Amino acid sequence: MKKISLKLKLTLLYTFFMALLTCASLAILFSLSSREVLSSAQSKLENRVQEGVEYIALRNGEIRIDSDFYSVARDVYLSLYDDDMYFMYGRLPRGFGQQPELADGELRTIRDGNREWYVYDMSYRLSDDQTVYIRGITSITDAEESFTVTVRFALVLLPLLVLATAVIGYRFTRRTLAPVRKITDTVQKIRADADLSRRIGFAEADQGEGRERDEIYVLGKTFDEMLEELENVFRREQQFTSDASHELRTPVSVILAQCDAMLAEGGAFTEEQISQISLIRRKAKGMSDMIARLLFLSRADQGRQPLHKERINVSELTEMIAEEQQMLADADGRGIHVEMEAAPEIWAEVDETFYIRMVVNLISNALRYSRENGTVKVILKETGGMFTVSVQDHGTGIAPDALPHVWERFYQADAARTEGSHAGLGLSMVKWIAEAHGGSVAAESTEGVGSTFSIMIPKGENDPEKNERL
C-alpha cells in the first residue's frame, strides 16, 4: 500500500477536526434554534391574541369586529367565542378540525392527525354581563418545517464547507511544507550526482518574508552549513589523496627500478635473494597500480578526468581485450579459459582508453576469483540504443548482503580477496567510467556458483555510412 504523504496527513487531520468542530457547533446551534423557534411561536401567539382585544368593541349592545381581526398575522389565526363556546367570529386554520374546551390563559398543544398546533385562549370582558374568549391558533408543524428547511440547507452547505476547508488546508499545508520539499529535492540531487556544492538557499529565497525565525528556515540554514562543512572535509580528503598519491609515485618507481636492476644482475645474488627481490618487486608493482587507481579516482572526483570519445568498433576492441587477457591467463598457469561471445559490428561513441581499462578490470577480476581450469565468459550484445558487456566467472561468489557494496572503494566482500594488488578500487573505476559515458553497472552473484558483472553504455549517434567509411 502506498504511504500517505505528510502533506495529505496534515490536510486530512485539519479537515477532520474542522468538520468535527463545525458539526458540533451546528448541532448545538440547531438544538438551541429549535427551542427558540418554538418559544418564538408561543410568544407570537400570545402577543397576537392580546392584540386581538383591540379589534373588538361593543356598540349599542352589538359586538363589532375590526377587519384586522380576520387577517393572519405572524401565522396566527384568531377566533372569537362566547361563554358557551359558540363560534362567533374569526378564522380557523385549514386542517384544524378539533374544538378543544376553552381554557383562559393556558397555552396548549393539540395534535390533529399528523399536525400539531398551539392553542391559546384569553377571556375578555365586554360588559358587566358579557364575557367573550379570544382564541389564537398557530401551527407547530409549519414552524418546525420552516426550521427543517434551514437545517437541510445547512446540511447541503456542510459538505461544501468541508471541501472548502480541505482545499484551503491543503494549500496552506503545501505552502508550509514547501521548504521541506525543497530540502528533500536538494538531498536527492546531491545523492544523484554526488555534488556537495548544492545548497538549499533559504537565506536568499525567503529574504524579506519574515521567515528568519521559522523552524524549517533554521533547519534549512543548518543543513546548508552542514553541507558546507562536508564539502570542505571531502575537498581536503580529495586533495590529500591526490597529494599523497603524487608523493608516493616517485619512491615506488625508484623501488621498481632498483628491483629491475638487481634482477638484471641475477648472477650476483643467490636464489633466495632473487626470490626476495622478486617479492619486493611484486608488492611494489601492486602499490604502483593502487596509486595509479587512486590518482585516477581523485582526478575523477575533482572533475579533472575528461573523456575523449571517438566512434569505434566495440565488437573488435572487446575481442582484442579478451584475447590479451587469455594470454595473461595462460601465463598464470591456472588453466582458465576466456570465452568470447560478441555481437558483430557494434559501433559506439566511447573513450577507447577508458573502455579498455574498464573491460580489463572486469575480466582480470573474474580471472582472479575463478577456480582452476574454469571458464570466464565475456558477452557483448546490443539492445536498442545501448550495448552491454557482461563478464561471468565460476568462482566463489559474493554474499547477498555484500553484493550492493562491491562498487564502493576499498570494499572487500571477503578478507581473503585482498591478495595480490587487489585493493577494492577496480570496480569503483569501472562504475565511474560507465557512468561518465552515461551508462550504468549491475552485479549478480550466487555464493559457490559465481558472479556476473555488467556494464550498460549508450552507443551514441548511429551513422551506418560513417561506420563503413571507418
Automatic annotation (TrEMBL):
CDD domains: HAMP (cd06225), HATPase (cd00075), HisKA (cd00082). It is an enzyme of class 2 (transferase). SUPFAM superfamilies: ATPase domain of HSP90 chaperone/DNA topoisomerase II/histidine kinase, Homodimeric domain of signal transducing histidine kinase. InterPro entries: HAMP_dom, HATPase_C_sf, HATPase_dom, His_kinase_dom, HisK_dim/P_dom, HisK_dim/P_sf, Sig_transdc_His_kin-like_C, TCS_sensor_his_kinase. One of its GO terms (molecular function) is phosphorelay sensor kinase activity. Residues 174-235 form the HAMP domain. It comes from the Bacteria. GO terms for cellular component: plasma membrane. It holds the Pfam family HATPase_c. Its main location: membrane. It catalyses: ATP + protein L-histidine = ADP + protein N-phospho-L-histidine. Residues 243-461 form the Histidine kinase domain. SMART domains: HAMP, HATPase_c, HisKA. The chain crosses the membrane at residues 12-32, 153-172. It is found in: Membrane. Its EC number is 2.7.13.3. PANTHER family: SENSOR HISTIDINE KINASE TRCS (PTHR45436:SF5), SENSOR HISTIDINE KINASE YKOH (PTHR45436). This is histidine kinase. The lineage of its organism: Bacteria, Bacillati, Bacillota, Clostridia, Lachnospirales.
